[in-house]
Specification:
Layout: E1 2-4, H1 10-21, E2 26-27, H2 34-37, E3 40-41, E4 43-44, H3 50-64, H4 67-73, E5 75-78, E6 82-86, E7 91-95, E8 100-102, E9 109-111, E10 114-119, E11 126-128, E12 131-133, E13 146-150, E14 155-157, E15 160-163, E16 165-174, H5 179-199, H6 204-220
Antiparallel strand pairs: 1-13, 2-4, 3-7, 4-6, 5-16, 6-16, 7-14, 8-9, 10-13, 10-16, 11-15, 12-14
Helix pairs in contact: 5-6
Length: 223
Amino acid sequence: MIVISQVLTAEQLWNIRARLDAADWIDGNATSGHQSARAKRNRQLAEDDPEAKALGNIILDALAASPLFVASALPLKVYPPLFNFYGEGEGFGDHVDSAVRIRAGSDFRIRSDLSATLFLSDPDEYDGGELVAEGHAPVKLPAGDMILYPASTVHHVAPVTRGARRASFFWIQSMIRDLSARTMLFDLDRAIQELTASAGPDAPALVRLTGLYHNLLRRWADL
């Protein structure tokens, strides 16, 4: 699980929050599969809501400008961001995200390699509401921060007991389907960045490592 801090600026976050406060929320099961529908109690914006599309584009632009997101996800496709709302007593039981996501009313589809939750409410605005993935500590991040994790992970959202939790959620199809290969490339990328800072971009070893990174990406990329 990778935390990506400050995906959104304070101005972007304020803009999204203000527009969500005036939005029309529907039953969250509008996008649920059979298993999820039995465990899910929340609200969300309709996928075809023009406001959801506009706010989603803000997030997509922010993701494209995040080096950590690009390095860790190696995104090929990103599902247009959706938005959910958990009020008191609402939560989402254990489930695994669907392997293939198809956007309603279109031919857009992705294989969901990674899942992402972008928090839009600060932790002091609500109690409960933690994202809990199997084998990991509960996650409750500051507004504007995002958690990225394998979509194959069993996870749940703990019931909210006070206040309201707002978030954006979406899925990513990576250029690298295999999790272990993607992890190795991410570790290699981080090592290259550290060496660049200490040895300079023209160090011969760094040039060879960068070449190795791109040759592995060329070998493993699924485009």
